[in-house]
Fold each of these.
Amino acid sequence: MAKKRGKRNSRKVVKKVLSSQKMVRSNSKKIGLVFKNLILFLVFSLIFVALYSISSNEFMINLFFLLSVLFGFVTLAFLLALLVFLVLKMLKR
């Protein structure tokens, strides 16, 4: 025996389409968070540079060099993010 099909719900879901894109806003929490991370990774990078210079084992020299370069690039990324947020804050005024 075939099952009876019930009436399908003919309600349509209407999605609202935003006509304008979301604007990126900078607030003090975001700027503070980026600044804290910038300082943290800068300190880590400087520690690894110091360990690189005083290390005598070749493996440790290579390891500390790679870590210092990696943390240096992350520091630069946070510096760029901080500059972007500061420019957005100035444009807001």
Amino acid sequence: MSLSRRGALVRNSVVAGVNGTITLTLLLIAPLGLAAVITNTVLITASTLVVGLAADQVVRWINPTAAPHYIPPQSQSALERRDFHAPD
């Protein structure tokens, strides 16, 4: 399965957000100052996003022929008409 660039960005953003939330929760338990907690959370969230995007670029570089699998809107409507047309 391959994703479009927008799909990959959304996926990586969600993963980074989840990692940031987990980090924030763990660091709030630790006896650190608020600035250290916020700084560490932001850095981990940003680094997760950057690493995810870099990994996607490496995959695209290794396998450049993988195209997103989707049906264009005009083809989809033609398929629906053909598939749901009652035989004569």
Amino acid sequence: MSSDETASWQRKIDHRLRALWTRTPDLDRAQRRIRVLVRFTQSADLLTNLGVKVHSVAADIASGSIMLTDLPRIASAEEVAFIEFAQAFATDS
């Protein structure tokens, strides 16, 4: 992926997803399924084709889960406007 493509998909994810992506080792990304909210511009069926396990849809927002390793590919899709991490980080207490 070129630096322009990297910058493009990272602009479409929230800061918590960006932090999770950065701190998760490459080998662990393929093993980790995360819950997300996805704002999309076309049919929710497209999200399923991209690999999103869609749980529910309201207007142009879908809740679902993805494998962390698929995040760049899904966020790069033209029909995906934004992806937000839909679960809280664990506290260090």
